[in-house]
Design brief:
Strand content: 15-25%
Helix content: 25-40%
Largest sheet: 4 strands, antiparallel
Number of strands: 13
Number of helices: 12
Distance between the termini: 76 Å
């Protein structure tokens, strides 16, 4: 190839003639805007999973899921304890034919997320075998110290300081454990099929229990198919709870109609930064999703988890972000969608599917 430019005279007539025709050579086309040609090379074969590694991964996931299991008694999944400090000596929430009543003659009633974490910790201690026969019942040890009991209930991280002082975590934990196991809890079950008849029954029973809480003379006036949670806090040797044998058998065994609900501690840890209602709704959804596809009105949920004086509209405003938090934290959440009330006065509805 010649290195002589087209406008130079090389002295060679043949070459100069070729240079004279330089302008006739078509310019190279600009291919920058041409589409990319498809890659005709052979695609790389997909990696064949190692059967042994796959089995090890599945076993590790199953072990993590098994170790993350915690439990809560069904009454606490069906109805909510107070979220904020309630006024008065008695609290009740209704779920269909059942009602949960919390009563205490002196002192504050349990409220907030700590009572739920206490029940989860108590269930975990029972499952781990930390209970023994004592005084005709069962003594369940939550820990040798307050810090150990708080870690069991998942309210204190390993290595963290429980903190003291008036508003510290330890003080709050002590107040709530005394409030929960110092209260009388009743789970009433109605045999009536008519909703109005059930309502009349519950109003009468709640009024009788209020009168009983005032003087506490004799046994509580309980109807048939009801349960009185008989327990007390025991601080003689570590942090422990004494439960009457019947309460122990009904609340913490899988073989009864009450049946504890199995929760995932990883989901609970993700929900702890959110409002207490999210934790209550998660436990309820675990229980309710066993029935398959269903539609729930927010008015019914307000009767289960709202306050005694809360409007349905105000409760619905709190419920929606709680449901969103549960859906984000729980991959198996059965909530399909949220439907506004039609017509306008109708309560919003939540459509549930199968897990």
């Amino acid at each position: 190839m010649s290195n002589i430019a087209p406008d130079q005279d090389s002295g060679n007539p043949y070459l100069d003639e070729w240079h004279d025709d330089w302008d006739l050579v078509p310019a190279l086309e600009d291919r920058s805007d041409w589409p990319d040609w498809p890659d005709e090379s052979e695609p790389e074969p997909e990696a064949i999973p190692d059967p042994l590694q796959q089995m090890m991964d599945e076993a590790a996931e199953a072990r993590a899921t098994r170790e993350a299991r915690v439990w809560i008694p069904t009454p606490f999944a069906c109805c909510g304890l107070p979220i904020v400090r309630p006024a008065g000596r008695i609290w009740h929430r209704r779920n269909g034919g059942d009602v949960l009543i919390v009563a205490r003659a002196n002192g504050s009633l349990p409220f907030g997320r700590l009572p739920y974490m206490l029940m989860i910790g108590l269930s975990r201690a029972i499952h781990d075998g930390a209970s023994a026969q004592c005084d005709g019942g069962r003594r369940v040890v939550l820990g040798r110290s307050w810090s150990e009991a708080m870690r069991l209930c998942r309210v204190l991280q390993p290595g963290a300081n429980p903190g003291g002082g008036k508003g510290g975590r330890l003080t709050q934990f002590q107040e709530q454990i005394e409030a929960l196991f110092g209260s009388d809890l009743f789970w009433l079950r109605s045999l009536a099929t008519d909703s109005d008849e059930r309502q009349r029954e519950f109003e009468f029973e709640v009024a009788e229990l209020e009168d009983w809480c005032s003087d506490r003379k004799g046994p509580p006036p309980l109807p048939v198919r009801s349960l009185h949670f008989k327990w007390r806090l025991d601080l003689e040797d570590g942090i422990a709870v004494w439960l009457e044998q019947e309460t122990f058998d009904l609340l913490f065994t899988h073989s009864t109609v009450w049946a504890v609900q199995t929760l995932d501690s990883r989901v609970i840890d993700r929900l702890l930064p959110h409002q207490t209602l999210a934790l209550q709704v998660y436990a309820w959804l675990v229980h309710r999703s066993q029935r398959g596809i269903d539609t729930i009105h927010t008015g019914a949920l307000c009767g289960q988890f709202g306050t005694n004086t809360e409007s349905v509209a105000n409760f619905a405003r709190k419920l929606k972000p709680a449901l969103t938090a549960v859906r984000d934290a729980w991959a198996g959440c059965p909530v399909l969608d949220w439907q506004k009330g039609v017509p306008k006065r109708c309560h919003a509805r939540i459509r549930l599917g199968e897990r």
